[in-house]
NAD(P)-dependent dehydrogenase (Short-subunit alcohol dehydrogenase family)
Amino acid sequence: MKLDSSMAAVVTGGASGLGEGTARAIAATGARVALFDMNAEKGEAIAAEIGGIFCKVDVTSDEEVAAAFAKARAAHGQERLTVNCAGIASGQKTVSRKKDTGEVRAHDMATFERTVRINLFGTFRVLSQSALGMVGLEPLEDGERGLIVNTASVAAQDGQIGQAAYSASKGGVYAMTLPIARDLAQEGIRVNTILPGIMWTPMMAGMDQKIQDALAAAIPFPSRLGKPSDYASLVLELARNVYINGECIRLDGAIRLAPR
Ligand code: NAD
Protein backbone atom coordinates (compact mmCIF):
# COMPACT_ATOMS: atom_id res chain seq x y z
CA MET A 1 0.00 0.00 0.00
CA LYS A 2 1.11 3.50 -0.70
CA LEU A 3 0.89 5.66 2.39
CA ASP A 4 -0.35 9.15 1.62
CA SER A 5 -2.98 11.63 2.74
CA SER A 6 -5.79 9.31 1.63
CA MET A 7 -4.74 6.78 4.29
CA ALA A 8 -5.48 6.55 7.99
CA ALA A 9 -3.26 4.70 10.45
CA VAL A 10 -3.38 3.74 14.13
CA VAL A 11 -0.26 3.31 16.25
CA THR A 12 -0.61 1.92 19.77
CA GLY A 13 2.11 2.86 22.20
CA GLY A 14 2.48 5.94 20.02
CA ALA A 15 3.45 8.18 22.92
CA SER A 16 6.95 6.75 23.30
CA GLY A 17 9.86 4.88 21.76
CA LEU A 18 9.18 2.63 18.78
CA GLY A 19 5.52 3.69 18.53
CA GLU A 20 6.39 7.38 18.62
CA GLY A 21 9.07 6.95 15.94
CA THR A 22 6.63 5.00 13.79
CA ALA A 23 3.82 7.53 14.23
CA ARG A 24 6.18 10.30 13.17
CA ALA A 25 7.40 8.35 10.12
CA ILE A 26 3.86 7.49 9.00
CA ALA A 27 2.73 11.10 9.46
CA ALA A 28 5.67 12.22 7.30
CA THR A 29 4.13 10.29 4.36
CA GLY A 30 1.03 12.48 4.66
CA ALA A 31 -1.12 9.71 6.18
CA ARG A 32 -3.45 10.63 9.06
CA VAL A 33 -2.24 9.08 12.30
CA ALA A 34 -4.10 8.28 15.52
CA LEU A 35 -1.92 7.57 18.54
CA PHE A 36 -3.39 5.13 21.09
CA ASP A 37 -1.65 5.23 24.47
CA MET A 38 -2.19 5.53 28.22
CA ASN A 39 0.21 8.44 28.46
CA ALA A 40 -2.04 11.38 27.58
CA GLU A 41 0.47 14.13 28.24
CA LYS A 42 3.09 12.82 25.82
CA GLY A 43 0.53 11.42 23.40
CA GLU A 44 -1.34 14.72 23.03
CA ALA A 45 1.91 16.63 22.52
CA ILE A 46 3.20 14.26 19.81
CA ALA A 47 -0.18 14.14 18.07
CA ALA A 48 -0.30 17.94 17.96
CA GLU A 49 3.24 18.07 16.55
CA ILE A 50 2.55 15.60 13.73
CA GLY A 51 -0.98 16.79 12.91
CA GLY A 52 -2.56 13.57 14.18
CA ILE A 53 -4.99 12.79 16.96
CA PHE A 54 -4.49 11.18 20.34
CA CYS A 55 -6.81 8.60 21.91
CA LYS A 56 -6.26 7.75 25.56
CA VAL A 57 -6.66 4.03 25.86
CA ASP A 58 -5.59 1.10 27.97
CA VAL A 59 -5.22 -1.83 25.59
CA THR A 60 -6.40 -4.21 28.31
CA SER A 61 -9.94 -2.82 28.02
CA ASP A 62 -12.37 -3.87 25.26
CA GLU A 63 -14.48 -0.77 25.83
CA GLU A 64 -11.57 1.68 25.76
CA VAL A 65 -10.12 0.14 22.61
CA ALA A 66 -13.54 0.23 20.90
CA ALA A 67 -14.02 3.88 21.94
CA ALA A 68 -10.55 4.79 20.66
CA PHE A 69 -11.21 3.20 17.27
CA ALA A 70 -14.57 4.99 17.10
CA LYS A 71 -12.88 8.33 17.82
CA ALA A 72 -10.05 7.72 15.36
CA ARG A 73 -12.40 6.57 12.58
CA ALA A 74 -14.74 9.53 13.12
CA ALA A 75 -11.80 11.89 12.70
CA HIS A 76 -9.75 10.15 9.99
CA GLY A 77 -11.89 7.41 8.43
CA GLN A 78 -11.26 3.67 8.69
CA GLU A 79 -7.58 2.86 9.22
CA ARG A 80 -5.74 0.77 6.63
CA LEU A 81 -2.63 0.39 8.77
CA THR A 82 -2.48 -0.55 12.45
CA VAL A 83 0.81 -0.86 14.30
CA ASN A 84 0.76 -2.54 17.71
CA CYS A 85 3.59 -1.10 19.80
CA ALA A 86 1.99 -0.75 23.26
CA GLY A 87 3.80 -2.97 25.70
CA ILE A 88 5.67 -3.28 28.94
CA ALA A 89 8.78 -5.08 30.13
CA SER A 90 8.26 -7.51 32.99
CA GLY A 91 11.44 -7.64 34.97
CA GLN A 92 15.04 -6.76 35.50
CA LYS A 93 17.08 -5.08 32.78
CA THR A 94 20.51 -5.65 34.17
CA VAL A 95 20.75 -9.26 35.26
CA SER A 96 23.90 -11.29 35.11
CA ARG A 97 23.78 -14.43 33.01
CA LYS A 98 25.39 -16.33 35.86
CA LYS A 99 22.97 -15.64 38.69
CA ASP A 100 19.59 -17.09 39.48
CA THR A 101 17.21 -14.20 38.82
CA GLY A 102 14.81 -15.43 41.48
CA GLU A 103 11.81 -15.20 39.16
CA VAL A 104 10.49 -18.67 39.83
CA ARG A 105 10.94 -18.45 43.58
CA ALA A 106 9.21 -15.05 43.69
CA HIS A 107 6.16 -16.61 41.99
CA ASP A 108 4.90 -13.15 41.10
CA MET A 109 1.66 -14.08 39.36
CA ALA A 110 0.38 -10.51 39.33
CA THR A 111 3.30 -9.35 37.18
CA PHE A 112 3.04 -12.38 34.96
CA GLU A 113 -0.67 -11.83 34.35
CA ARG A 114 -0.35 -8.08 33.81
CA THR A 115 2.45 -8.55 31.29
CA VAL A 116 0.51 -11.12 29.29
CA ARG A 117 -2.68 -9.04 29.53
CA ILE A 118 -0.98 -5.98 28.03
CA ASN A 119 1.54 -7.48 25.59
CA LEU A 120 -0.39 -10.46 24.27
CA PHE A 121 -4.10 -9.95 24.97
CA GLY A 122 -3.81 -6.21 24.24
CA THR A 123 -2.19 -6.92 20.87
CA PHE A 124 -4.89 -9.43 19.96
CA ARG A 125 -7.65 -7.05 21.09
CA VAL A 126 -6.38 -4.15 18.96
CA LEU A 127 -5.59 -6.43 16.03
CA SER A 128 -9.03 -8.03 15.97
CA GLN A 129 -10.96 -4.79 16.44
CA SER A 130 -8.93 -3.21 13.67
CA ALA A 131 -9.38 -6.16 11.30
CA LEU A 132 -13.15 -6.11 11.87
CA GLY A 133 -13.17 -2.51 10.67
CA MET A 134 -10.83 -3.16 7.74
CA VAL A 135 -13.05 -5.87 6.24
CA GLY A 136 -15.60 -3.17 5.37
CA LEU A 137 -13.08 -1.23 3.25
CA GLU A 138 -13.01 -1.26 -0.53
CA PRO A 139 -9.91 -3.16 -1.59
CA LEU A 140 -7.04 -1.15 -3.06
CA GLU A 141 -5.90 -1.79 -6.64
CA ASP A 142 -3.94 -4.90 -5.74
CA GLY A 143 -6.76 -6.34 -3.62
CA GLU A 144 -5.28 -5.27 -0.29
CA ARG A 145 -7.63 -3.94 2.39
CA GLY A 146 -5.23 -3.35 5.23
CA LEU A 147 -2.07 -4.19 7.11
CA ILE A 148 -1.50 -4.97 10.78
CA VAL A 149 1.99 -4.92 12.23
CA ASN A 150 2.61 -6.39 15.68
CA THR A 151 5.62 -6.04 17.92
CA ALA A 152 7.00 -9.15 19.57
CA SER A 153 10.68 -9.32 20.52
CA VAL A 154 13.67 -11.56 19.93
CA ALA A 155 12.73 -12.78 23.43
CA ALA A 156 9.91 -14.68 21.69
CA GLN A 157 12.51 -16.95 20.11
CA ASP A 158 15.51 -16.66 22.40
CA GLY A 159 13.94 -15.93 25.78
CA GLN A 160 15.24 -13.08 27.90
CA ILE A 161 16.99 -13.64 31.18
CA GLY A 162 15.02 -12.30 34.15
CA GLN A 163 11.94 -11.76 31.99
CA ALA A 164 10.00 -15.00 31.76
CA ALA A 165 6.64 -13.21 31.66
CA TYR A 166 7.81 -10.84 28.95
CA SER A 167 9.28 -13.69 26.92
CA ALA A 168 6.05 -15.68 27.24
CA SER A 169 3.89 -12.71 26.24
CA LYS A 170 6.00 -12.03 23.16
CA GLY A 171 6.12 -15.72 22.33
CA GLY A 172 2.34 -15.59 22.12
CA VAL A 173 2.42 -12.67 19.68
CA TYR A 174 4.98 -14.55 17.58
CA ALA A 175 2.99 -17.78 17.57
CA MET A 176 -0.36 -16.22 16.67
CA THR A 177 0.99 -14.26 13.70
CA LEU A 178 0.84 -16.94 11.03
CA PRO A 179 -2.58 -18.42 11.85
CA ILE A 180 -4.13 -14.96 12.06
CA ALA A 181 -2.43 -13.88 8.84
CA ARG A 182 -3.81 -16.97 7.14
CA ASP A 183 -7.36 -16.20 8.30
CA LEU A 184 -7.24 -12.55 7.34
CA ALA A 185 -5.55 -13.19 3.99
CA GLN A 186 -8.94 -14.10 2.56
CA GLU A 187 -10.08 -10.55 3.40
CA GLY A 188 -7.01 -8.94 1.81
CA ILE A 189 -5.58 -8.02 5.21
CA ARG A 190 -1.91 -8.75 5.91
CA VAL A 191 -0.44 -9.42 9.35
CA ASN A 192 3.28 -9.27 10.09
CA THR A 193 5.22 -9.16 13.33
CA ILE A 194 8.52 -7.43 14.05
CA LEU A 195 10.90 -8.96 16.60
CA PRO A 196 13.12 -6.11 17.79
CA GLY A 197 16.40 -6.81 19.51
CA ILE A 198 17.74 -4.17 21.87
CA MET A 199 16.34 -0.82 20.89
CA TRP A 200 17.27 2.41 22.61
CA THR A 201 13.91 3.73 23.86
CA PRO A 202 12.52 4.93 27.19
CA MET A 203 11.71 1.26 27.96
CA MET A 204 15.45 0.74 28.35
CA ALA A 205 15.97 3.82 30.52
CA GLY A 206 17.78 2.88 33.67
CA MET A 207 20.00 0.37 31.95
CA ASP A 208 23.53 0.76 33.17
CA GLN A 209 25.79 2.54 30.65
CA LYS A 210 28.40 -0.23 30.88
CA ILE A 211 25.77 -2.82 29.98
CA GLN A 212 24.53 -0.69 27.10
CA ASP A 213 28.06 -0.40 25.76
CA ALA A 214 28.67 -4.13 26.13
CA LEU A 215 25.42 -4.95 24.34
CA ALA A 216 26.18 -2.55 21.52
CA ALA A 217 29.67 -3.99 21.15
CA ALA A 218 28.23 -7.52 21.05
CA ILE A 219 26.12 -6.73 17.99
CA PRO A 220 28.17 -7.96 15.03
CA PHE A 221 27.09 -5.09 12.79
CA PRO A 222 26.36 -2.18 13.05
CA SER A 223 27.58 -2.48 16.67
CA ARG A 224 25.02 -0.15 18.18
CA LEU A 225 21.64 -0.49 19.83
CA GLY A 226 18.60 -0.24 17.57
CA LYS A 227 16.73 3.03 17.14
CA PRO A 228 13.04 3.86 16.68
CA SER A 229 13.90 4.92 13.12
CA ASP A 230 15.19 1.39 12.37
CA TYR A 231 11.82 0.04 13.47
CA ALA A 232 9.79 2.71 11.66
CA SER A 233 11.54 2.14 8.36
CA LEU A 234 10.71 -1.57 8.53
CA VAL A 235 7.03 -0.71 9.11
CA LEU A 236 7.11 1.53 6.03
CA GLU A 237 8.74 -1.26 4.01
CA LEU A 238 6.08 -3.73 5.18
CA ALA A 239 3.44 -1.26 4.02
CA ARG A 240 5.11 -0.87 0.62
CA ASN A 241 5.58 -4.57 -0.07
CA VAL A 242 2.27 -6.40 -0.44
CA TYR A 243 4.06 -9.73 -0.84
CA ILE A 244 5.27 -9.86 2.77
CA ASN A 245 2.58 -11.60 4.80
CA GLY A 246 2.50 -13.82 7.88
CA GLU A 247 6.15 -13.07 8.63
CA CYS A 248 7.96 -12.63 11.94
CA ILE A 249 11.00 -10.53 11.15
CA ARG A 250 13.95 -10.12 13.48
CA LEU A 251 15.28 -6.55 13.70
CA ASP A 252 18.28 -7.07 15.91
CA GLY A 253 21.62 -6.59 14.15
CA ALA A 254 22.12 -10.38 14.40
CA ILE A 255 22.58 -10.22 18.16
CA ARG A 256 22.13 -13.99 18.47
CA LEU A 257 25.53 -14.31 16.82
CA ALA A 258 27.11 -12.32 19.64
CA PRO A 259 29.85 -14.15 21.52
CA ARG A 260 28.65 -15.30 24.97
P1 NAD B 1 8.23 2.42 25.53
O1 NAD B 1 8.09 2.14 26.97
O2 NAD B 1 9.10 3.53 25.07
O3 NAD B 1 6.78 2.65 24.87
C1 NAD B 1 5.70 1.80 25.17
C2 NAD B 1 4.43 2.62 25.13
O4 NAD B 1 3.33 1.73 25.40
C3 NAD B 1 4.37 3.73 26.19
O5 NAD B 1 4.02 4.97 25.60
C4 NAD B 1 3.30 3.26 27.16
O6 NAD B 1 2.55 4.31 27.74
C5 NAD B 1 2.43 2.40 26.24
N1 NAD B 1 1.64 1.43 27.00
C6 NAD B 1 2.06 0.57 27.96
N2 NAD B 1 1.05 -0.14 28.46
C7 NAD B 1 -0.06 0.28 27.80
C8 NAD B 1 -1.43 -0.07 27.87
N3 NAD B 1 -1.88 -0.98 28.74
N4 NAD B 1 -2.31 0.55 27.03
C9 NAD B 1 -1.88 1.49 26.17
N5 NAD B 1 -0.59 1.88 26.07
C10 NAD B 1 0.30 1.28 26.87
O7 NAD B 1 8.70 1.05 24.87
P2 NAD B 1 9.33 0.71 23.45
O8 NAD B 1 10.72 0.30 23.69
O9 NAD B 1 9.01 1.73 22.44
O10 NAD B 1 8.53 -0.62 23.15
C11 NAD B 1 7.52 -0.70 22.16
C12 NAD B 1 7.21 -2.17 21.93
O11 NAD B 1 8.40 -2.81 21.45
C13 NAD B 1 6.81 -2.93 23.18
O12 NAD B 1 5.81 -3.86 22.86
C14 NAD B 1 8.09 -3.64 23.58
O13 NAD B 1 7.84 -4.81 24.31
C15 NAD B 1 8.68 -3.94 22.23
N6 NAD B 1 10.11 -4.18 22.24
C16 NAD B 1 10.98 -3.22 22.68
C17 NAD B 1 12.34 -3.49 22.70
C18 NAD B 1 13.35 -2.51 23.17
O14 NAD B 1 14.53 -2.88 23.27
N7 NAD B 1 13.00 -1.28 23.44
C19 NAD B 1 12.79 -4.75 22.28
C20 NAD B 1 11.89 -5.69 21.84
C21 NAD B 1 10.54 -5.39 21.82
In short: The radius of gyration is 18 Å. The beta strands are 8-12, 32-37, 53-56, 81-84, 146-151, 189-196, 248-251.
